[in-house]
From TrEMBL:
It comes from Robertmurraya siralis. The chain crosses the membrane at residues 23-46. It comes from the Bacteria. This is Uncharacterized protein. Keywords: Membrane, Transmembrane, Transmembrane helix.
Length: 48
């Protein structure tokens, strides 16, 4: 049961912010999407 709760908590933490920001962030556009995507990719690249 704890594994199930932990897994769903991780999924919610990972996917709730893109949904909320995509719905309610008024300044978001393609340029900022590419910038944020690059930041995330660089974090994954340098972290591994």
């Amino acid at each position: 049961m704890l594994l199930l709760v932990t897994a769903f908590g991780g999924l919610e933490a990972a996917f709730i912010w893109p949904v909320v920001l995509g719905l309610y962030w008024q300044v978001g556009n393609t340029v900022w999407g590419i910038v944020i995507n690059g930041c995330g990719r660089s974090f994954v690249y340098f972290d591994s």
